[in-house]
Amino acid sequence: MGRLADKNILITGGNGGIGLAAAEDFDREGAHVAVKLDRVTRTYRRDKFEVRALDDVSLTIPTQGFVAIMGPSGSGKTTLLNLVAGIDHATSGSVVVGEEEITTMNERELAAWRARHIGLVFQFYNLIPVLTAFENVELPLLLTHLSRAERKTHVDAALKAVGLADRTEHYPRQLSGGQEQRVAIARAIVTDPTILVADEPTGDLDAKSAEEILLLLTQLSRQFHKTIVMVTHDPRSERFVDTVYRLDKGVFISSEKGGMSDQTNGLVATT
Ligand code: ADP
Ligand code: MG
Q1: Residues with a beta carbon under 5 angstroms from ion ligand 2
Q2: Is 77 touching ligand 1 by the criterion CB < 6 Å?
């Protein structure tokens, strides 16, 4: 992955040096905006034809929420996520993530920004088969200034946060799909990113494992106050998220409350 090539990953650490930001670092009541898209269009050109993957999309995503981007196949969900993650460029319009306008960054700036602020989770986990769970999670930290002992502290904390403290020496093939996705989530949070972006994270899982992953993401957003943007076409996800944003044919249709929008932190954290 490109982000592994970036040398200047800063670990803020939070309290206890676990790599996951502490609750008091954030103002939960503050109306902070994690993502702001303003009139974003992304077109792809193929020969003479132009595909308008996103068409004049304006939306905001608040910090510390768990949100789902939903819509039928081909509606532009992945395109939108890739713009938020700084993997792809908008054709026009503005994309602000955190405090920063990322549309004007060059590739080098964007790569450094991505390494610092974005954690990525994919449908097919993308774990390295010859590395253990611990080593997979450690990968993004190898190019930082952290010592071996500090890396171990962060990796152990991340694996604990996803409920896999007892699987550190397992290889991906020795894990279930749900466990592999947990390792991938641990790898995504180990650098303490500002935003976790997940593209169809439950797309390859059975119903029970999918539910466990959705619950884990809910917990991470609550306990560690993470902003999580998830793309999915699975309607079962709706009850796990705070807000659902709907796309259709590249157009932003609506945002509505998900099932978690009026539940307390305690309810989720105890499960
Ligand atoms: P979704 O994730 O909702 O299924 P995508 O964002 O992947 O949708 O795609 C939206 C539209 O853009 C589709 O019509 C798709 O074919 C087109 N598209 C996506 N990526 C590319 C690309 N790299 N080149 C050409 N067309 C693309
Ligand atoms: Mg997609």
Answers
A1: 77-78
A2: yes
